[in-house]
Amino acid sequence: MGQSRLIPEAKEETPLRLAVEAMGTRFELVLANPSAKGIGEMAIERIVEEDARLSAFRRDSLVSLINRQSWKNPVTVDGEFMDLLLLCEKINKDSNGAFDPTIGHQMAALGFRGKKARQKAVNYREGIEKKDTAVNGFPLLHLNPKEGTVYSESSDLKLDLGAVGKGWALDMAAEILKAEGVETALLHGGTSTVVALGHPPNNPSGWKIKTRKLHSGSNGVVNLRDAALSVSACDGRTTKYGDKEIGHVLDPRSGKPVPEPRAAIAIANSAAVADAWSTALLVLGEPPPDMPLHMAQVSSQFRTMHKP
Amino acid sequence: MKEIDRRGFLVRTGSGAAAFAFSPVLKDITVPANRAEILRLGVAGAGRQGRAILAELAKLPSAKVVAISEPDERRMKAGLRRAEGAKGYVSVQEMISGEDDMEAVVVATPTHLHREPAEAALQAGLHVYCEAPMCSTLEDAQALSNAASDAKGILAVGLQARTNPVYNLARSFVRAGALRETIALRGQWHKKTSWQFGTSEEHNWRLNPTVSLGLPGEEGSHQFDTFSWYLKKKPLRVRGTGAVRLHQDGRTIPDTVQLEMEYEGGLKLLWDSSLASSFEGRHELFRGSHASVKMAEGFGWMFKEADAPTQGWEVYASRQRFHNDEGITLIADATQLAKQGKLKEGIGLPHPPIYYALEAFIDSALTGKPAAAGASEGVAALAAGIAANQALVSDGWVEVAR
Predict the structure, then answer these.
(1) Residue A218 falls within a domain, yes or no?
(2) Whether B6 and A76 lie within 8 Å, measured CB to CB
(3) Which of A155, B77, B310, B383 falls 20 to 30 Å from A186 in CA-CA distance?
(4) Does the complex come out with an ipTM higher than 0.85?
């Protein structure tokens, strides 16, 4: 996900804000009712919990376990994590491979996974300059919901839930808020994925979310109510690619970075769905006809990525 | 979708032991002779700790969660999502009478509600893993200990350092004299949280002084046990202070605490804890004249003095800088990883500490091996925690009950 800014507009009364560092970014929860702090803390704790489970950077996470062992023998996981993988499988299919969370090793090779990976990146880039390295890896990851197992056909396959994890964590947190009776709240992860519960008192249409103007008629404000919105762009994190600076979104179908500067917005009932689809839209360039979202927009008018 | 059953896979590939060879840190844990044997468990309590336990049990091929007991509907739903096929019950008693094939119960209820489900499970002939602190009173802990001594099943107490591979490795160095004279102990548990979880009194029991052991009991008792276990010395007395420094919401349970605990032989532990700052998190420090050892859950380091003798192994070790100090990273099978050129990949445990605690418990239940931490260790850790909590409202030293 890019670092596109989704900034909740100021409210009349001062809400309670809780924040936590997780998944390499800052999550924030805005509660219209400050007395619901205890519930808010539960939601924040849940985000931290999901970070520990989903992080590809922690050796003790479920994702790292799968990356280490699932090509040797099937790894058993809990039902909740299986639900997330099944969601990824569905979006991978629906997007014809444009969303693929098994591209961890390509991301590392492009220099987005630490110093050691950056050293290896040169060789990899030379390789993708010369040949097509198309990889739709997800079909090589075999999910068995009945047994709760994950098995990978290839040791090269590295699960990286960076394009869906923030949304998933936000969904889990929002689930707690709703179950505890919180009707008005806003949660975001890294200002790129946001969940709105209800609406603030001063705007029955929803929470006003400032985002990019994806077309000339847009005012860059979305009223979000009981829904999730995610923005993805190529220009969030970048790395050097020859004499160019490239964005961090990879086209899993070609194994290469998304070739042109784009930004995409997706709105859905679930933040995980919106998160994953905003990345898929970025790769696809346009929404597929049967996309299961309220709103999907892609724009290539942003020319900030390729620096002259 | 290709259907591959892990347990079947293990049988097909020869043995579970072969599969366990992939995990680099299990050398101290005996693999049961017949890994196809599975322990059928129930989990009492599906709050945060219960959910974490369910996630780790799902990873263990020798565990099958058949039931969960939890009175809160939302928590039950969240728990069942992590345990495919498990049956939900409102109470432990119903779970025990409703599950004929259940062999063990993991107790993850609030501390003051440990005794009832653990005792009921032991009396029903089941094995019990009880989260630490063992109970909220010594009377309850002693009753549970008595129940365990008469029971068919084993009682394991969740003092997780004792099954943590990195803590075991570091302890072997300490016991072998790598620190030479142990001169001082330091520990802390810091986390930025209000300790409020939801709005109900049941969920916010940590803030209820009639049942909560406060920071010294709920968190400190784990660390006090680690010091005792490393040093083979008991804590004798404790004094300290506590105050509400940040969370001015009417609570009386201190959110910031400083303690001094004296162990046998006069060694002193300085321990502090806060819900107002997360700085440096949780760790234990053993300061010695030749070296100091710092442990932090999945990680451990040794800081050697310049005049300390070289032991050989540290030449190949991975190192991390902490301002002016350089820590030798303690890695549970460093020799094997070094041979593979993967030493740095071994930094940090491949599973959370609770995984190893549960695995050791299952191993004990299946093989009859004694629990890594049983009733006596649980009672001793609780006694230290209770004394430390009492010290916050007492003038001077409080003796740790024997």
Answers:
(1) yes
(2) yes
(3) B77
(4) no
